[in-house]
Amino acid sequence: MKKISFALFIFICSNCFSDENKINIIVENCRACHNVNINVKEIPYIYDLPKIKFIELMLSYKKQKDNNVMTRINRVLSEDDIRKIADLMYD
């Protein structure tokens, strides 16, 4: 249920907030799971990836047909959104 709620939250944010606010909220949600303070081997620390690899992985999630969390999150993101997220996180 939490995963569905999160995906719904992302979808609502994408329609209700300005583009900049939407990206900031999404980045904070990314950091909630991919944070250095969380010690779960299945959830990697996001900054261990180079920016270009992050973008490639995020775009690849959009093409997957499974129902994992990252695939569901990325369905509502455009390629432009993904690049803006990367810019905010890595620059």
Number of helices: 5
* Count of β-strands: 0
Helix content: 55-70%
Report mean pLDDT, rounded to a whole number. Answer: 79
CATH architecture grouping = Orthogonal Bundle
> Low-confidence parts lasting 5 or more residues at pLDDT below 50?
none
Count the domains: 1
- Which series of helices and strands comes N to C? HHHHH
Which outline best applies?
Answer: globular
Biggest sheet character? none
What would you call the structural class? mainly alpha
CATH class: Mainly Alpha
Whole-number radius of gyration? 13 Å
Portion in strands? under 5%
From the N-terminal CA to the C-terminal CA, the straight-line distance is 33 Å
Please name the CATH topology: Cytochrome Bc1 Complex, Chain D, domain 2
Brief characterization of the structure:
This protein is mainly α and 91 residues long. It contains 5 helices and no strands.
Secondary-structure map with pairings?
Elements: H1 2-16, H2 19-33, H3 51-63, H4 69-75, H5 79-90
Helix pairs in contact: 1-2, 2-5, 3-4, 3-5
Explain what this protein looks like in three dimensions.
With 91 residues, this protein is mainly alpha-helical. It has one domain: Cytochrome Bc1 Complex, Chain D, domain 2, CATH 1.10.760. The protein is built from five helices and no strands. It has helices at 2-16, 19-33, 51-63, 69-75, 79-90. The model has no long low-confidence stretch (mean pLDDT 79).
